[in-house]
Fold these 2 entries.
Entry 1:
Amino acid sequence: MESFFARNRLSAYLDRTLPKGEAEAIAEAIARDIALSADVQAMQKTLSLMHTCGRAPAPTGFSARTMASIATQPVPGSQVAWLQRRMARMPTELLALAGAMAVILVAINRANDGADERLASNETTMQAPAVAPQDNAKTVEQTSDTAAVEPPENASTPAVKAVAKPAKSNGSKARTPVPKSLPYDPASPLSYRILHGGDQVLYDIAVLADETGGRLVDVHGKLFTPHSLNESRSFSQLYLITNIDESAKAHAMLIERSGMEPYPINGPQPPLGEDETVFLIEAQL
Amino acid sequence: MPEAPNLIRRFHAGESNAFAELVSTHQDDLYTLCLRAVGLDKAEALAETVLLAAHQALHRLDPDTHLYNWLMQLTVEHIQATSPLECGPNDGLEEGSATIQTLLDDLDLHFRVAVIMRDIIRLPESQIAEILELPLGTVRSRIHRARLTMARGIAPIMDNV
């Protein structure tokens, strides 16, 4: 084997990873060539020194200092993990109580909805006869049986509809689902209000941030720590910063979770990086 | 390097001492790579920076990721970001260690990292290829060239000593 090729195989030769025949050929080349032999000796010396040095143990106290530094850092995007830990610590009784409260609230809400609908239908039936005579004097002269069976054309039916429509729309205004396909422009940040849900709100927001690859921050851009949310305040503002590519997805998810129409942010906003946009979330906790 | 298979999952589950265990398990290799790549005066700060970055990113890491390789990759990225890469004085090192450090300092960063992993941390070539995301042949070539360069540089240094 020529010295040039042998030199290129020296590392493998010293690592003893060459096939037997090739190793013998290199050994012969080393015996023939003094320069190659010098290279082998120098390389062996280098390897011996490096192996002797070995791994350097980390300085004394390195681990403790590192963990202390980590303790001063914001919670690393782990709102979900933090909430999971926090919820895991909650006593079962407290969770049961919260569940019972939620059931009661849903029942009350449904009862109110039923009352609204009954009220709306009552308004309709009460106003219909009052409007009809104004539009057509004939109905005054008709017997009650005739009026009930054959209401006058172009009079009572349109009148009932006219009264019924606004009554229905007034009663259901707050429950109108917001279309998910609202036009959204990342250059015009919006604010979203989430009013109900307790701890679940935090969890949902954290999941949303994770799924859109975003981060939750305060108005100064400091990474949001869930601890600061519900200890002293029941209503909080936090900002979700996402990449513009993910902003439409975040917008749709926020609309769905909020159930309310967003509105433009009027006020300060956290600093944004390139290709980033912000969403203000106002959460009732 | 023995791998703790559940360490990432335990961290995701919020186990408080999971990261401390990660630090104590991997700190020596991580510090060694930093020490030999950037020198004694910057090594500890760099190793700490790497671990802080790891702590910030770990919650997004796939639990099936090879944690050791991921940490070493992160370390290499931070080493490459240490610009300009000038090693400081090696006064605090022992004689043999300082000699090796002097030889390493003269290497191009790619060769330096490869040979540190192979001959000081003693990782298999295949694992180095995975960490550096390079073909095995490229890794072997880098290790060989680094060794040869160091071998040719060691004679004058040893003569001076």
Entry 2:
Amino acid sequence: MSDITADFDAVPQHGIWWRMGRGLASFARRSPLSAFWGVVGVLIVVMAVSAPVIAPYAPLKSDFRAMTKPPNEKHVFGTDQIGRDTLSRVIYGSRASLTVAVSAVVLGTTFGAFWGLACGYFGGRFDLYSQRVMEFLQSFPDLILAMAIAMALGAGFGTVIVAIAITRIPFGGRVIRAVVLSLKEMSYVEAARGLGASHVRLMMRHILPQCVAPYLILATTHLGVAIVIEASLGFLGVGIPPPTPTWGNMLADSLNAGLVPPWWLVLFPGGAITLTVLAFNLLGDGIRDALDPRLRGAA
Amino acid sequence: MYSYIARRLGYGLLTVFGVSVVVFVVMRVLPGDPLVALFGPEGFQKLSADDRAHYMADLGLSDPLVVQYLHWMRDVFTGTFGHSFFRSESVADMILRRGPLTAEIAVISVVLSWVVGIPVALVSALRPNSWGDNIARFISILFLAVPGFWVGMLIILAMLFWFGYRPPLTNVSFWENPWGNLQVVIGPAFVLGMGQAAYIARMARSSLLEVIREDYVRTARAKGLSSTLVVALHALPNALLPVITLSGILLGFVLAGSIPVERAFATPGLGYAMFMAVSERDVFVMQNLVFLYASVFVLLNIAIDLTIAWLDPRIRYQ
């Protein structure tokens, strides 16, 4: 302890994991609620990744001795009309929902963000036309546009992702464009331009890093929306086609299980959607508060 | 004011045109053969090359895209909206028959969302961070996450389970049989209304909290008005402006949400027709309904913008 220089040396030696841990710990202290829902979100992701390990049955295996059985000790969430285990299907369903939602949001928001970056940076006619196109895209209620695209392309994993991603483009585009418009006038950007930096260098090295926080906020807040759209598409029969279990097509399936859908086929997939969306929404709120204190408590 | 209206309407027409182009591109130009969509992949395999050419010509799909687009616009402007591939009914007839029910659901749900959302926001904003506020916020966060169609399915199950009641599935007009009509409409309207109420309550709360800090509110308080009156007479009217705009944006939520919700309730409205069109892969009906929904959404939002401009002079003199 007497050696002061040793203490100085010790400070920067913490690795990236230590710093991330510190950051997470302070995030948890500041907003315990979001941290809790963050943990729920992580658990859902873990569930999706380790589905083959934790699911008690194979999601497509029919047991014809146990058809449309209410929850019991062998099948905790009951079985559907052809004897598939609901719990296993809900667990496997998280894979489809999360994969689609995350890829669609990342794809759509990233594309929109770069488009918005170019619009804000170059301005002029390119910006004008781009803004109109984004407006046209935003004139559709998102589910309807996604339905039309998914239907036109034909049902499948990739098409659902593309369909939802396209509905996310204008959001990324508009937010990042607004950020870029104000950044462009900042004196440090002016200085870099004065030093002869190229357009690409200005955009990538000086403006883009400042867009990361709004990008993250946008992406997390849209995850919940994307999950609901994916579930609705599945419910309407234009999502990922059966037999692949998704929460949406499980709910659609339950309507075919007789005049009255058995309650366990309705309750559990829908509950999974609600819990997941809730977790991502609240985590998104927490991330927004942490990254952009000006927005705290707004909306 | 007139120049504002003209500008807004001009933009609106441009947007509707843009929307029609997007719909056309999505339904006709994107990869994915309309015949595959109509007949299904197996059915398409069975068609001979002659059959394919015949159907394409018959449906006007072998014309150049520009001609197809113009034909479609002619159908739209003559008010027939083209025909369903599977039924003899024209899309316009379908809209006239089923549209009123969906419109009714939309209107009732918007009314419900205000009737529930605004009082909740008032309770929250008058005592921020109190018990009432926290409960209200928790419930609205919950409602933002719950998919409406699932709530609809749960409501139907609960009604059957506890009361043995199932809403009628017939399309009855309000003027002929108000009670029967209400039973069909109230379920979807309730579900969609609560979904919107959550957004409305959140927005109205933060908007009220902002307005309450303004000088004129403090002045009203200083001249001795009770806090309830200050909020009701001075703060609320100004705080409602952003809520009206939000309500317009939420119409998109209602229009889109009504599709899965009507499916959950088996309501014979336009949303259900859209679900049918999607599951039958009826490209023509879908194209027209998507265009109709998006246009309605655009036009209603113009109406809302004009209302806001009328209510708030700051906007119209910009």
